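Issue 218. Parser rejects a valid record. Input:
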Amino acid sequence: MFLGEYQHTVDEKGRVVMPRKFRDRLSDGCVITKGQEHCLYVFPMEQWETEVQRVRRLPRTDRRARNYARSFFAAASDLALDKAGRVQISEALRSYAGLGKDVTVVGVAERIELWSTATWETVAQEADDFYAGIEEVLSDDDGI
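Output the parser choked on:
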């Protein structure tokens, strides 16, 4: 499981160091693709297979499902960490996520999210406000 928030930088070659505690789960490689709210999702290979099956179950007759699958898969890159624990992020993905020099790496259970630090500060505040204001029990029926 991926947990925590870490501050890192993107080097001149577009590489980001993955937190040391995440590297074992990424040792067999990973897939990086577009995430919601203009972050990047990083999936270890075994979780990527689960995500592929989830998207495959979406109805092809639904335009939203087709568009989701197109964006999700077209942007995906399967990668390996180098000996220094870095992962290379394509220019297209860095552009999508607005990644400049400062990046925040966030563990979100089964995946890692990569955020522009400036964007993350806004998104994290919104998430914290939502979380703090929950007054009832959420369930799967709530769509969460």
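Fixed in the parser; the record now loads. The beta strands are 2-9, 15-17, 30-34, 40-44, 77-79, 86-88, 102-109, 111-116.
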